[in-house]
Design goal:
Blueprint lengths: L7 H16 L4 H12 L3 H7 L1
Amino acid sequence: MMPKTFDAVKLMRELRDKLSQEMEGMTPQERVLYVRNKATSTALGRTIAG
């Protein structure tokens, strides 16, 4: 068995924790707008939303 070079679970937890900190104190509506704006700030996100 080869050693892991990438830990997807660790990355997901780090990203989730970062988003939680950034959205702390926001209303549900503000959170929705925040996530939508984050998603459409990338080329892939714009393609999916388009």
